[in-house]
Structures
1.
Amino acid sequence: MAVIFGKTSWLAFNLGMLVGFFTIFLLLNNITNSFRTEAPLAIRSWEKNKHMALLQKFPHSHQPGSSKVSNDLSQKIRILCWIMTGPNNLNTKAIHLKYSWTRHCNVVLFMSSTSNDSFPTIGLGTKEGRDQLYWKTIRAFQYVHKNYVDQADWFFKADDDTYVVVENLRWMLSNYTSDQPLYFGKRFKPFAKQGYMSGGAGYVLSKEALNRFVEGFRTGVCKHTTSVEDLALGQCMEKMGVIAGDSRDTEKRETFHPFPPESHLTGHFDKSFWYWSYCFYPIVEGPQCCSDLAISFHYVDPTLMHMLEYYVYHLRPYGYNYRYQPELPEAAGRLPVHNKKKTTTEVTAMDKNKTSSQ
Ligand SMILES: *[C@@H]1O[C@H](CO)[C@@H](O)[C@H](O)[C@H]1NC(C)=O
Ligand SMILES: *[C@@H]1O[C@H](CO)[C@@H](O)[C@H](O)[C@H]1NC(C)=O
Ligand SMILES: *[C@@H]1O[C@H](CO)[C@@H](O)[C@H](O)[C@H]1NC(C)=O
């Protein structure tokens, strides 16, 4: 009896172990797999566009009259945002920008090699691929200059994995006028006297800078010399007398960031990392890395994009006064006000023929 009982419990014990092992194996396998290969369920279904349109139904913008300062700025500092994307990225990346931060731009255009009327994207008639990046940038700015130059004061380029707080971009720009030959972004220092702006963090050209960029290519002063888009654009800017601006806040904290928030806030950049020799201004790691009025982060995946949109625009501590409250620069008071235009996704490639009636 005792022997049989012993045997049974031994068997049960082993069976239990086996089941346990198997369960844990399945669980771990599931977890690591989902981290490695697939976006969370919500994003996967959003990628299929099932729920994306719902985002449009939620009241995204703010209570009427409650955002007076940012509303006023949006009529003084009109920003056209154009997004560098491609046909394969529309449903996986670009769509998340379409339904998040780009809604805060005065005009938004998605630039691709081929046009897609349903997204919509503008076809630049280029090929796809990394080596095409500068051609796409040149064509995009030429297109914007030809069709939209009067509809905005500043012209912002971002990648389809860049997250931008457009209101903070307007605050930084409110210290300047768009007839000054200026451009701003995350400033790198090598290969050009005044440095150049990193591509991934996005960069913004004043109207005068845009005019000069297009003029540079018309006259042949600027040429397609390399596919390294951000450096090549910086070299053209320098030749055309466009000044590389300082976009740091009044406490000298950076506003444009070439990595996601976690890298700057909690990461540590290895001593041998190229970044150390590229940054124009001293690198600050940790909590002081980033302005409270940060403008952009790069390598933001779709999940983080929607999280940031929630953290930036909706989540807030009840009754709390923010620690950093810089004044609006004096110059902002003198900027002309433009009538409120329809914004963002309402403006599409189809609006091309309306520019003349403007
Ligand atoms: C246009 O974009 C949509 C995504 O919005 C995509 O589903 C569709 O296949 C694209 N059409 C073409 C012709 O590429
Ligand atoms: C405003 O621009 C001037 C240069 O024209 C600069 O010295 C100053 O630091 C800027 N202020 C802010 C808040 O960026
Ligand atoms: C051009 O604009 C007019 C009215 O503004 C509109 O009726 C027409 O359909 C537009 N054409 C295109 C190609 O969008």
2.
Amino acid sequence: MNFDVVIIGAGPGGIFAAYELMKLKPELKVAVFEAGHALDKRRCPIDGDKVKSCIGCKSCSIMSGFGGAGAFSDGKYNITNDFGGTLYEYIGKKHALELMHYVDEINMKFGGEGCKLYSTAGTRFKTLCIQHDLHLLDASVRHLGTDINYVVLENLYNELKDKVTFFFDTPVKTIKIIPGGYEVRVKDNAYSCKKCIISVGRSGSKWMEKICKELSIPTESNRVDLGVRVELPATVFAHLTDELYESKIVYRTEKYGDKVRTFCMNPKGAVVNENTNGIITVNGHSYEDPAMQTDNTNFALLVSQHFSEPFKDSNDYGESIARLSNMLGGGVIVQRFGDLIRGRRSTVGRMEDAFITPTLQATPGDLSLVLPKRILDGIIDMIYALDKVAPGTANDDTLLYGVEVKFYNMEVEVNKQLESCYPGLYIIGDGSGITHSLSHASASGVHVARNIAK
Ligand SMILES: Cc1cc2nc3c(=O)[nH]c(=O)nc-3n(C[C@H](O)[C@H](O)[C@H](O)COP(=O)(O)OP(=O)(O)OC[C@H]3O[C@@H](n4cnc5c(N)ncnc54)[C@H](O)[C@@H]3O)c2cc1C
């Protein structure tokens, strides 16, 4: 065997699996194969000047490379079982929280020390929300910020680079079952290993699907979240973000009974493009360093769509809607809330007239031509509901960027050890469909590493 353990993907799941393996069993020969670049080579070419929008790089530096999709993220590590994944269904709520706290300790040790831990425990906003039929979810959140998150990753890489063999720009093409283990094929080479951890995240979702089909690993898929990213003056949400940093608020729409939720709140942050398999959607992040902060806060408003028989491909549904916005706007579309309510598109002139400066250059347009009525109605209802706890949310100049899509990888069938039907083949992180966040993905890596070390 070339290696004892091969890890596919160097996102938080893969990194924490490697870290824990090296801590518990430094004698193991471990390799990490990563489709994207090393951390210092990751650079998105969009500079707002020469390159204004996504040019579809072969390997997207936002989504791929050491640090995974989380490398330039806001670095919000939510320590909770209420959202971010369903790891607790496999390993129990107590253990899942313990692992998330352990991940937090490591982040603090590797450069995150001093970053604030926010908490919803005992907050007065819970009452305020419930008075308006809004439901604030419980969580502690460590906000590293994009800048400190990068430092932590850099330090973790320096810790691991002499202990683990890293292969960057090396996507794994196939996995073959061989006597006593697995063979991973990359470019023109093949490497054998006793155990294999797959941690390919969202960008690896199509590849994961292919592998599951080839190896007949059962999967299930029926959910996609669709919506917009809201951007407004930071002062509108300051009372909430100063105390909680991120508030996950859920609202049930009157007409359809759909759940709309706030997601990925970035106080004084920036809205950014995201490229998923060539489709441009929207996301957001913010910096810990005050010098890099903006005057705006952004967050997503998402509506969950669950499909039942016979429709199976919920991600395709999300992609089709995102493609529609790309077709009309050449990328992300932005619309003032006032224009949406008056049934008219936003124009360059109306945007220039607005009292808010957008942090992302997007095409002014009409989101009602893109988003299904049911989803748009839910978003409008939620904006009016939020206006009661954060007055100003429903102002005319509130910006809506579309579309934001939260793709869920199909859920792969694994046992409590996150091991597939093949002994020694583990599937973790967002690629397993079980986690959807930094802390859950990282915790899943630690969990598997401990089981292997045992
Ligand atoms: C802009 C942005 C902001 C975000 N902000 C937050 C946040 O603040 N808080 C939060 O909790 N979550 C956030 N997320 C989500 C978070 O980044 C993910 O949940 C997390 O990164 C999942 O970790 P992972 O290791 O499972 O997968 P990933 O981080 O996606 O890593 C998977 C890695 O596998 C590699 N890979 C894929 N296929 C192959 C292959 N065939 N061979 C080799 N390598 C492969 C990819 O290149 C990638 O580097 C954000 C995501 C984005 C895009």
